[in-house]
Amino acid sequence: MTEAAPPGPMDPSRPGSSPQGAGQGASQGPWGPRSAAAAMAAAEASLTAARTTSVPPVSPPPPAAPTPAAPTRMVFTGENGELFGLLVRGYVLQVLTLGLYRFWFTTEIRRYYWGHSFVGPEDITYTGRGMELFKGFLIALAVVLPIQLCAFLVLLGLPQAELVVSGTVFLAYALLGQFAVYAGRRYRLTRTSFRGLRLRMTGSAWSYAFRAFGLWILVVLSLGLFYPWATAAMERMKMRNTWYGDVQGDFTGEPIVLFRRGIVLWLIALALPVASVISIIASVPPEAWDALWLWLDGSSSRVSTVVGLAIAAVAGVGLLTIVIPILLFPAFQAIAFRWRMEGTRIGGASFTSRFTIGASYRVYLLGAMALFGVLILLGIVSAIGFGGIATVAILRGGDGVSSTTAGIIGGLLVVVAYLVLFGTMWIAKQLLIDLRLQRARLSSLAVVNLAALDHARANNVDASAMGDSLGSAVDFGFST
Predict the structure, then answer these.
(1) Contact at 8 Å (CB) between 459 and 405?
(2) pLDDT (tens digit, 0 to 9) for every residue of the chain, 480 residues total?
(3) Which H helix or E strand runs over 326?
């Protein structure tokens, strides 16, 4: 009799092992059948694990910062031909009016320079008038003439006090000159507009004058070493009181930067003359100085070799002291201009400058060479002209002309020759140096963040032209 086999996992005889039961109540796992609930739980666990181990979604990148606008270049479009006609007409009218036309002429020149200056496509406008400068000059004379009158009266009674009186007048004019710097700048700003808005200037001109006067004394006492700190302080006083509409200006230039840029020039300008003096003292014998003092005192009229040696040495040092600063002036001017412009602020707008020492020397050297050529040409023309006049006078019987008439004619010819010579050289300097320097400087500038001035609002004020004209009255060159 055959023995029955034990039931297996899929034996139909086992309860729940039928294919129907497997499909209804259980599923086949890796190690045997399992319930449907367990299978669902395993599937959920597997899905959860897949979610937790998957790469998290990448967040979108933040929006890119707006690209800053490129600096707005400044340009100068003035040309020689237009300015030449303006200069010739203005000079002739000044001669014919004995200088009275200078106020209207100054206004025309400013309108020319302002009107040909552009910030990008936008121009700058000057609205000043010649009559304003003339009235200001009359007021300035009311300040200057009493000073001259008092000095004259004091010298009548105390002629021995000439040195003290002259020094006092000089100091008074120096103080008035600093007043003219501030007040004249205030007038010019109120007559300058950009985008239809005027600039203006607040603060006290007298407060600035006394502070600037003290700073310049420190500059003189320090032999120029204090100049960067004095200039920075004066620029801050001016710029912090300067406004474009309701937008305030500022000056952030660091004096130590100007000091580092200019110290080499200072050393050259001072060290070379000092070294020359030391070498002269060491090389010229003492008896030469004694002979020189006797000759200067009038005790000796004989100019010996040693006296000539001492005179030549002193003249050489004096010439060197004058020539070196002149040769270094273009370099110093370029350094100071760039430093001043880069430190100037109007609200959120600032300036950059590419004006270099080489550009400054190119303007001055080429201009000086051209001026020398003009001077030679004038000499040739003058020689031909006077030679022709003399020839005509001789051919027509100059012996019959009275000495008085000849003297008058000769004097008139000298005056005309001087006016022509002076006027020609002055006009040539304006065209060959000043105009080219203005073009080089302005074209080197760019305004950074010009959009900061877009929301400026008008806040116009008026200012007298007295300060501007006072610089002309004291004739210290402060009103430029």
Answers:
(1) no
(2) 444 444 444 443 444 444 444 444 444 444 444 455 555 555 555 555 545 445 455 556 555 555 567 899 999 999 889 999 999 999 999 999 999 999 999 999 999 999 999 999 999 999 999 999 998 888 888 888 888 899 888 888 888 888 888 889 999 999 999 999 999 999 999 999 999 899 999 999 999 999 999 999 999 999 899 999 999 999 999 999 999 999 999 999 999 999 999 999 999 988 787 887 777 777 766 766 666 666 666 665 565 666 666 677 777 777 888 888 899 999 999 999 999 999 999 999 999 999 999 999 999 999 999 999 999 998 888 888 777 776 666 666 555 556 677 677 777 888 888 899 999 999 999 999 999 999 999 999 999 999 999 998 887 666 666 656 665 555 443 333
(3) helix 305-342
CB neighbours of residue 411 within 10 Å = 10
Q: Looking at the chain, how many residues does it have? A: 480
Rounded CA separation 299/270 (Å): 34
Q: Which two tokens stand for residue 127?
A: 């609205």
Q: Residue 353 belongs to what H/E stretch?
A: strand 349-353
Q: What is the pTM of this model?
A: 0.76
Rounded to whole angstroms, the Cα distance separating 466 from 180 reads 8
Nearest to 367 by CA among 80, 76, 78: 80
Sign of the torsion formed by the C-alpha atoms of 20, 22, 23 and 26: positive
User: Which neighbouring-strand residues pair with 75?
Assistant: 118
Helix (H, G, I), strand (E, B) or coil at 76: strand
Q: Transcribe 118-167 into DSSP letters.
A: EETTEEEEE---HHHHHHHHHHHHHHHHHHHHHHHHHHHH-GGGHHHHHH
d(C-alpha 298, C-alpha 312), whole Å: 19
Alpha carbon distance 242, 186 (integer Å): 8
| Terminal Cα distance for the chain, rounded | 139
What b/e readout covers 82-108, taking b as 16+ CB neighbours within 10 angstroms?
ebeebbeebbeebeeeeeebbbbbbbb
**Token pair 């005889």: residue:** 13
